[in-house]
Amino acid sequence: MKLSGKTALVTGSTSGIGLGIARVLAEAGADILLNGFGDPAAALAEVGRFGTRVRHHPADLGDVAQLEALFGFAQREFGGVDILVNNAGIQHVAPVDEFPVERWDAIIAVNLSAVFHCTRLALPGMRARGWGRIVNVASVHGQVGSVGKAAYVAAKHGVIGLTKVVGLETATTAITCNAICPGWVLTPLVQKQIDDRAAAGVDPQQAQHDLLAEKQPSLAFVTPEHLGELTLFLCSEAGSQVRGAAWNVDGGWLAQ
Ligand code: NAD
C-alpha cells in the first residue's frame, strides 16, 4: 500500500470533495482523521471499509481553540499528521456592498485562516519526521473572480499565496505544499447554488446546465475522485518536486 504508515487529516471530510479525497487516501493505505459537521457515522463507514484506522473529530475550524484540540487529538490517536488536506470551505453569494459582515468573517476564518492554523500546527511534526504533504483545496476562484463571491474569491486567492510561501519555506525538505483548483464539482456546496437558481423559477436540469455552460467548457462536473487521485499523486515520490503549485482541475475553465 502506497501510503501505509501515514496519517492523513482531511478537514471538512464528512461530504463532497473532502470525503472523496479521504476515500482515495484510505484505499491507498493511509490512516485517516476525518473532520466536518456532516454525519460522522456514514463518513466513518465509507472511509473505514478499506481497513485502515479512521477517526472523526468535530472541530469547528472557525474556532482556533477547537482547531488546536483537533491537532491534540491527532497526536494522541495517530502520533501526528503526515498528510494535511486543507479542504473545509463555505460559500455565500451576495454583492460586495450587501455582503453580510458576519458571512465575510466566517468565510475568511474557515476558507483561509484555518489553512494557516492547520499548516502551522502540522509542520513541526512533519519536520521532525522528515516527510510531509500539504494539499490545499483552493479553487479556480483562487485565480479568477466571479460576481457575488467577494469573500470566497478573496480567501481562495489568499490560499494560493499562502501555498507559495509554504512551498518555498519547505523547498529543501521532503515536505511539499501545493494547491488544487477545482472548477465545478457537484457537491452539497454547489447543489445549493443550483437549488437557489431553481427556487428563482429555473428548471433544475436547466439550472445545472446553465451553471456549467457559464464557466466550464467541458460541460461536465469534476468529481471528488478526480481530486482524490491528484492528491494521491502529490503524495507520491513522483510528486515530490511539485512545490508551491496551483493545479487546475476545471474542465477548461481557466483556459478561456
Ligand atoms: P461541502 O459543503 O460538500 O463540504 C464542506 C465540508 O466542510 C463539510 O464536511 C462541512 O461539514 C465542512 N465544514 C464546513 N464548515 C466547517 C467548519 N467551520 N469546520 C469544520 N468543517 C466545516 O463542500 P465541497 O464542495 O466538498 O467543498 C470542499 C472544498 O472544495 C471547499 O474548500 C470548497 O471551497 C472547494 N471547492 C469546491 C468546488 C465545488 O464545485 N464544489 C469547487 C472549487 C473548490
Describe this protein's structure:
The protein has 256 residues and is of the alpha/beta class. It has eight helices and seven strands; from the N terminus they run E-H-E-H-E-H-E-H-E-H-E-H-H-H-E. It has helices at 16-27, 40-48, 64-78, 101-129, 150-169, 188-199, 204-215, 224-235, and strands at 7-10, 31-35, 54-57, 83-86, 132-137, 175-182, 246-249. It has a seven-stranded parallel β-sheet with strand order 3-2-1-4-5-6-7, sandwiched between helices. The longest helix is centred in the middle third of the chain and has 29 residues, at 101-129. The radius of gyration is 18 Å and the shape is globular. Nicotinamide-adenine-dinucleotide binds next to helix 1 and helix 6. InterPro entries: 3-OHbutyrate_DH, NAD(P)-bd_dom_sf, Sc_DH/Rdtase_CS, SDR, SDR_fam. This is 3-hydroxybutyrate dehydrogenase. Pfam families: adh_short. It comes from Pseudomonas ulcerans. Belongs to the short-chain dehydrogenases/reductases (SDR) family.
Pattern of helices and strands: EHEHEHEHEHEHHHE
Largest sheet at a glance? Answer: 7 strands, parallel
The percent range for strand residues is 5-15%
Rounded to an integer, what's the Rg over CA atoms? 18 Å
Mean pLDDT: 97
Task: Report the uncertain regions.
Answer: none
Strands, count: 7
